[in-house]
Write a structure and sequence with these properties.
Blueprint lengths: L1 E4 L5 E4 L14 E4 L13 H11 L2 H15 L16
Length: 89
């Protein structure tokens, strides 16, 4: 998803794929606050994710492992118990 920060501190994002078990589809605009963000990645980190995907053979498994990478390296925090992790479909 690409997103931009507004002057009021909210973010506007454009969904870049159809989300499973959600009415959100590719191209829909969503507005959210910083507290709603679990993590963000730089475009260059895409290679790391793709490497995990190849090694694990699954985008969903790579996403779950990707979630642990920032925490393990000390730059991320554990997700709150009520966090939903949604695989791309």
């Amino acid at each position: 998803m690409q997103c931009n920060e507004r002057v009021d501190g909210t973010f506007v994002g454009i969904v870049d794929n159809d989300l499973l078990r959600s009415p959100l589809r590719c191209g829909h605009e969503i507005v959210f606050q910083h507290s709603h963000m679990l993590e963000a990645a730089e475009p260059g980190e895409e290679l790391t994710f793709k490497g995990l995907m190849v090694a694990l053979g699954s985008a969903a498994d790579a996403a779950m492992m990707w979630r642990d990478v920032p925490e393990a390296s000390g730059v991320g925090v554990k997700a709150s118990p009520r966090t939903w992790l949604l695989p791309r479909g």
